[in-house]
Amino acid sequence: MMLDPEVDSRPWEEQLALDDASYRAQLAYLFERSAFYREKLTVAGFPSAEAAGRLTDIAQLPLTEKQELRATCTPANPIGTHLCAAPSEIVRIYSTSGTTGTPSYIPLTATDLEDWVTGSARSYAASGIAAGQRIVTTYNAGPFVAGAALASFDRIGLCHIPVGTGNTERLITAIELLKPEATALTPSYAAHLVERTSERGFDLRGSSVERVLVAGEPGGGEPSFRAQLEEGWGAHVTEAMGIGDIGISLWGECEEQDGMHLGARGFVHAELIDPETGNELELEDGGSGELVLTHLRSQAAPLLRFRTRDHVAVRTSPCPCGRTGPRVRCIGRTDDMLIVRGVNVFPSAVREVVSAFAPQVSGHILVKPRSAGVKQEPPLPVVVELARGATEDAALAEAIREKLRSVLVVQARVDLVPWGSLRRSEYKSTLVER
Ligand SMILES: [Zn+2]
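The joint structure predicted for all components is written out below.
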């Protein structure tokens, strides 16, 4: 089902032409209102919106890093110098949990919030959920942008049942009594629930839930991991992805499960770069690299060529669902990437290879780099948890090691540990121990 068929199925070239006009207006707005970009672009040799050119020239402009924005925050301007709107125009301020302690603030005007919800609703509607159905959600949105994603369920016309994070009993009871057709949660929590419900004898497979919508971390699109979730839930699993500074659930997967469509088309422009060099990569079928996003009509705090740190694989072949434009699947966070003797290794890709050994393994892994930093000397230690009741098996460890070598071209050391040894998460999983 398409929420907005005219937009969702618009020929991509037509979309890019519309985006070009939006982009040039956004550039003019940045030069007029953004102290941050006026300075950054002028220093880079682009003293005006005209000099910065068209959307097809965007790769010549500098990238924006999260730390650059943070560095401009002061007690007098806690949001940063990229703030473009007057205080009276701001209707919402979300925050991200910065690793350094001080949160980063994300301001929105009424139009920004409306665009966020519209894009998110298109992304989630791609999963097949439809008006009149019930969805139980487990996000404790609190200060976080996920709160706006919840509004997109209202937009689609769903009956929304929020139960919050970490209250598994409440969630199971809601599924039993209220019989929702769908649920939205992180892939880690979805996996955790499969284990928890089987422990207490609740028949998750036989429940009313037909669709599991996962977001918040990579994993939902990894075939083996997804197969485990679908088996455990007896339901169709699709994923969505956003990034706090740009927008929530910008991308959402359709029932073809072949990458996420850009629900936020018209609001956001996507590019691909090589994370090592920052060089532009072609957004073409089979390509992969770090996703870079640009706001096209943001008012409160527009960002230009923002590095998301999400490493994605791209599909551009026509999708049978009728939605146009490139699709992406998140392979992992650039920040989690390790380089083992010149080969890029994502912990989520390691989990994907290991998960194919189910039902002998639980699907939980932990990569334990032997040294600080990105570059690692082989073998890369990988802790693999066995399935419940399974015992130490040298042949299994060897088979996993061999599979990691053939699929990811990485020499690993595989340590099998009993079921229950690795920490479970009710929100997002940690796959690397630093
Ligand atoms: Zn599709």
